[in-house]
Amino acid sequence: MELFQDEDRSVLIVEDEDDGDENKDNANKRGENNSNNKATYLTGDIFNPSHLKSLENNMDIIHIGSFLHLWDLPTQKKACKRIIGFLSKQESPSSTANTTANEEGNEDGKVKINSLIVGRQIGASRAGSYPSRRSPSATMYRHDPASFQKMWEDVAEEMGARDKWHVETKLINWGVVENRMVKDSMKPMENSSMVDNVEMNGLQFTVRCVE
To answer: How many domains does the chain have?
Structure first.
């Protein structure tokens, strides 16, 4: 993770942990090349409520790169709830005194209007569970635009419908996959016999708090 802060806003960049060393090197290079760089590199387990506490209720914009697609759908929802917990909350006279930690370890409270969660990940022309390249026994849920929208609606409802999210997505065709091992991970679980002409898609998204 990289954290950028100035007097006006805070931006958090969340990336796949497997790319951590490369991302850290890039962050260090940016710092070396710019004496005014205010980036801080952080690591932590997003599912551990005791980790990354300093980010909670502190971010205006969060970028998620190649991250949510790592897990099955229920785990993605859990990650979304923790990410929402990083966003700054609206100020109200009663919120400070009455905030309580929810099951994800985040303080309850309405997110500031126009807070943004943006990013990109592997998508699919047809949403579903796909084999994980990390573990033969695991699956990864890959979204099409409709399923990604539905996930955020479900997350909002499960968090008490205190926030409303406007979701914009764009599915991008990254081309035909040729490597057989990668092909196998791009096939839906129910279509295990499909091996030829497997297309790889990317999903770009913007999720904005509108109320």
So the answer is: 1
